[in-house]
Design brief:
The protein is built from 16 helices and 13 strands. By secondary structure, the chain is an alpha+beta fold. Strands 1, 3, 7, 8, 9, 10 and 11 form a 7-stranded antiparallel beta sheet that branches. A two-stranded antiparallel ribbon has the order 2-4. A two-stranded antiparallel sheet has the order 5-6. The longest helix has 30 residues, at 313-342. It is globular, with a radius of gyration of 23 Å. It starts with 6 loop residues before the first strand and ends in a 30-residue tail after the last helix. It binds adenosine monophosphate and magnesium ion.
Length: 492
């Protein structure tokens, strides 16, 4: 058993101004907290070797494996609408890329391994809470089939990091299709570095969207593809009640993967205005505003590409505007497609969207639990089923019975067998989400009680989210009033 990883370092072969070469800091006494053996297998990595002392040294940043060329990536970004010309990996280091057995090229990144040239006033470290939170939520998202960065491992550093209070430090090993963000393009565009923008666009096309190299206008095609990927991604977020919380342009990946799980959260009661992040005082990144913000971020991406699109500024702008306006259609197609599927409707017919929005109004009025509403609806496909439990989710709303009647009639019109519809619904409506109060409880048990069992149980449950196991029934429940978490914190 030995830890040998065939790293490639394509990003480090880009010009030196794209990154800084760094050495992760040495953790005083690294200890493995979590290892994602399934993901290790998908990457073609030896899980046993990763769990060995040598492996943990690598996962903590203490040892640089042969072939890795650690770098911190340069990027800029709009944070809450304000442009910051130099952000960059201030507490993350890209070890290198791994080519998985299925041919995918994936970044292995350490998050929390110490200061880099981009750390500004930060310590480059991560506390164990945010590391375990990202691990849990990213793996839950992957279990829903939503594009996301993955979590390979979490390692305790044995060090104390200072936040609102002293906390144990940790390092997350993150796996991504690429860490290039909208903000990476902005970094070069802001410096009028057209060559940098072009090289980055070429890099992204070759790595993420190789089919576009053959397109008539590859850069326009790239923009169009990223618009579509983001539209689809946000539709999927909404379909599970996910609130990203910090949709800054530096947190939007060009790959279309969800990235940077900070103060993210899932809706309990349905409320499109729901804001959970404590740092989002204006509600910029509320649940229901996410499509609009994605489009705003994409406009910033389009601006960066202008010089590549045409020598004529007006026609370049025209190309961006046209493709950006395609966002609404892409989003609505993905959004209604997904939500109608959640209702058990396979092919859209006139009136279906109104059926859905009718349910949303009832949910909002009744403060119905988002996840349970869709999950329990599958039980009611059978017209003989008892509706009482479902009605109680809405606090017994009188408008619900007529809605249920219309919905059932609609399902009948499709001609599919009720059992088939219910099975399809249960395969996309999760029973379990990482509910904020459960996540907080699990992290508190580790940090204050040195007890990892609560977390491990929750991780098990959220990564098998479509199964309904009696022993996990408590994890499917919305918070009682006294359990409700009012805000989530970035905790960086
Ligand atoms: P995030 O909130 O994770 O999207 O990070 C925003 C920016 O702040 C990025 O440039 C990070 O690298 C940087 N940053 C966040 N936390 C730290 C930290 N503890 N030390 C240094 N830089 C940090
Ligand atoms: Mg970030």
């Amino acid at each position: 058993m030995s830890l040998s990883i065939a790293f490639d370092n394509s990003y480090a072969r880009l010009p030196a101004r794209f990154y800084e070469r760094v050495r992760p800091e040495v953790a005083p006494s690294p200890g493995l907290l979590l290892l994602n053996t399934t993901l290790a297998g998908e990457l073609g990595l030896d899980a046993e070797a990763l769990a060995s002392a040598e492996g943990v040294a690598m996962l903590s940043g203490a040892a640089i494996p042969a072939g890795a060329e650690p770098i911190a990536l340069a990027y800029a970004g709009h944070q809450f609408g304000h442009f910051v010309p130099a952000l960059g990996d201030g507490r993350a280091v890209l070890l290198g890329e791994v080519i998985a057995p299925d041919g995918r090229r994936l970044d292995l990144q350490l998050k929390g391994s110490g200061r880099t040239a981009f750390s500004r006033r930060g310590d480059g470290k991560a506390a164990v809470g945010p590391v375990l939170r990202e691990y849990l939520v990213s793996e839950a998202m992957a279990a829903y089939g939503i594009p996301t960065t993955r979590s390979l491992a979490a390692v305790a550093t044995g060090e104390t990091v200072l936040r609102e209070r002293p906390l144990p430090g940790a390092v997350l090993t993150r796996v991504a299709a690429s860490h290039v963000r909208v903000g990476t393009f902005q970094y070069f565009a802001h410096r009028s570095d057209e060559d940098g923008v072009r090289r980055l666009a070429d890099y992204v096309i070759e790595r993420l969207y190789p089919d576009l190299a053959e397109a008539d206008a590859p850069y326009a095609a790239l923009f169009e593809r990223v618009v579509r990927r983001q539209a689809q991604l946000v539709a999927l977020w909404l379909s599970v009640g996910f609130v990203h919380g910090v949709m800054n342009t530096d947190n939007m990946a060009i790959s279309g993967e969800t990235i940077d799980y900070g103060p993210c959260a899932f809706l309990d009661a349905y409320d499109p205005g729901m804001v959970l992040s404590s740092i989002d005082r204006q509600g910029r990144y509320a649940y229901g505003r996410q499509p609009q913000i994605a489009q705003w971020n994409l406009a910033r991406f389009g601006e960066c590409l202008l010089p590549l699109l045409s020598d004529d500024r007006d026609s370049a702008v025209q190309m961006v505007v046209e493709r950006l306006s395609g966002f609404a259609h892409e989003f609505e197609t993905a959004y209604f497609g997904r939500f109608l599927e959640k209702l058990g409707i396979a092919d859209e017919r006139p009136g279906d969207r109104e059926l859905l929005t009718g349910l949303f109004s009832l949910m909002q009025m009744g403060r119905a639990d988002f996840t349970l509403t869709f999950r329990r609806l599958a039980d009611l496909v059978d017209p003989k089923a008892d509706t009482e439990a479902f009605l109680s989710l809405f606090g017994g709303n009188a408008g619900l019975e007529p809605w249920l009647r219309t919905w059932r009639e609609r399902l009948t019109a499709d001609g599919r067998a009720p059992a088939e519809i219910a099975t399809a619904m249960r395969a996309i409506n999760p029973a379990i989400i990482p509910r904020n109060h459960q996540v907080e409880k699990a992290l508190d048990a580790i940090i204050d009680g040195n007890d990892g069992a609560v977390y491990l149980r929750l991780l098990q449950a959220v990564t098998r989210p479509f199964e309904e196991r009696p022993e996990d029934a408590d994890l499917a429940l919305p918070p009682r009033p006294e359990e409700r978490v009012a805000a989530t914190f970035c905790g960086t």
